[in-house]
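lol ok so funny story. i was supposed to be doing the assay writeup but got distracted and ended up predicting the structure for this chain instead. priorities right. anyway since i did it might as well share w the group, maybe its usefull for someone
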Amino acid sequence: MKYRGSCHCKAVTFEIESSDNPEVEDCNCSICSKFGFLHLIVPKRNFVLLSGENQLTVYRFNTGIAKHTFCQICGAKPFYIPRSNPDGVDINVRCLDEPPVNMKIVPFDGKNWEDNAASLAHKSK
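and the output, tada:
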């Protein structure tokens, strides 16, 4: 299935391909809990940035590996390159125009990321 999404102001738009029943993580780490990010990790080949590349800015913290992208206009974080899957793209399901109807939301203990990150490694394959 193809899904379209965007930042709040729609300067940044994208399309992804995913199943209609993906497993989506609700992470409790410091950044995800502040932003309400619901994680749907897809392989890079299943992600297309349609518009707004010049409107994106990158925020890095901790190890600096993850590339947290934000719209410079509205501040929304529709997707980023995750530390757990640098060969994938982590989509904020809340930024999809129509999220997958049958998604399964599962808790992810990101406060203890080092202990749990390996459980995400298969997501971008």
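The radius of gyration is 13 Å. The chain has a mean pLDDT of 92.
back to the writeup now i swear
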